[in-house]
Specification:
Blueprint (H helix, E strand, L loop, with lengths): L1 H11 L13 H23 L2 H5 L3 H26 L3 H21 L7 H21 L4 H19 L4 H26 L9 H27 L2 H7 L2 H12 L7 H47 L5 H4 L1
Helix pairs in contact: 1-9, 1-11, 2-4, 2-8, 2-9, 4-7, 4-8, 5-6, 5-7, 5-10, 5-11, 6-12, 8-9
Protein name: EamA-like transporter family protein
Family: Belongs to the EamA transporter family.
InterPro entries: EamA_dom (IPR000620), EmrE-like (IPR037185), RarD (IPR004626)
Length: 312
């Protein structure tokens, strides 16, 4: 649980970082994230002797890791576009929707059970998305793109049979040749910013790899040990921080009609969290009952029967 909380708190701070990388384009920033993350993970696997895990990975595992790499890269690109174009609220909306996407994927793919309150929360979120589509004249493309790419990414991560560091290394290394080729093209054509905007800009681009790797390693660890639906609920930390950033730092305007959609999604969140909390409490009570019943049974066996009635 702690790994998941730390991952989402770090992701919540991303709107403060990516505008610092301008004038680099979204695709250039994405390429740098991939390259520096791949380099950092290669060093980590070399230090921890983790390469053997990837060498012995099955073909289906490599397919899943490759697909996960494509999905997370798409998610990064959409997020960078949203933040650097002044649509932080749309990014927040995407991550508000994403946990409910994770819940649906857990039910449809992994066979996780959906209780009535959870079903009500998912349906209410679907109504909110439909409302935002109607008032906007088109679906919230950025938000849905973020929700779907990260939701399926989380599903794949739960099915990959390698450790978090090895999986992240594979995801970035698969994409590294494309990213490196694109950066080389930018520099040779004179349109790249890594070498033309000063050492400070280059350092920030390199730092993007570090801030990419740390929360993803935490997230990978969390997906291994807690249910996908719990992962989904923890994610509300990130969009809450992003929404506060959009409202109070960059002063984004949100129309009253869009507020209606946001409020519907927040109500869905409250329903889901309340249900999850109640379920956790009932589970704890169920675990405690045998522990309290055992001493009573012991006391009964310690008293020798003295009459035929007690023997019966």
């Amino acid at each position: 649980m702690l790994y998941g909380i730390l991952a989402y708190l770090l992701w919540g701070l991303f709107p403060a970082f990516f505008p610092l990388l301008e004038p680099a384009s979204a695709v250039e920033i994405l390429a740098h994230r991939i390259i520096w993350a791949a380099l950092l993970m290669s060093v980590l696997l070399s230090v921890t002797k983790g390469w053997a895990e990837l060498r012995h990975a099955s073909r289906i595992t490599w397919y899943r890791m490759g697909a996960a790499g494509v999905l997370i890269a798409a998610n990064w690109l959409i997020y960078i576009i949203a933040v650097n174009s002044g649509h932080v609220a749309d990014a927040a909306l995407g991550y508000f929707i994403n946990p409910l996407v994770s819940v649906l994927l857990g039910v449809l793919i992994l066979g996780e059970k959906l209780r009535r309150a959870q079903l009500a929360a998912v349906l209410l979120a679907a109504v909110a998305v439909l409302w935002l589509t109607i008032i906007g004249g088109q679906p919230p493309i950025l938000a849905l793109g973020l929700a779907l790419t990260f939701g399926v990414y989380g599903l794949l991560k739960k099915q990959v049979e390698v450790s978090g560091p090895a999986g992240l290394a594979a995801e970035t290394l698969v994409l590294a040749p494309l990213a490196l080729g694109y950066l080389a093209y930018l520099e040779f054509s004179g349109t790249g910013t890594a070498l033309s905007e000063g050492p400070g800009h280059f350092a920030l681009l390199a730092l993007s790899g570090v801030i990419t790797v740390i929360p993803l390693l935490l997230f990978a660890r969390a997906t291994k040990v807690i249910p996908l639906s719990t992962i989904g609920m923890l994610q509300y930390l990130t969009p809450t921080m992003q929404m506060l950033w959009a409202l109070f730092i960059v002063d984004e305007h949100i129309s009253p009609q869009r507020w209606v959609g946001f409020i519907l999604i927040w109500v869905a969140v409250v329903i889901f969290v309340a249900d999850a909390t109640g379920q956790r409490r009932s589970t704890r009570r169920a675990y405690r009952r045998p522990a309290t019943a055992a001493p009573k049974a012991a006391e009964t066996t310690e008293t020798p029967p003295s009459t035929p009635q007690s023997e019966r």
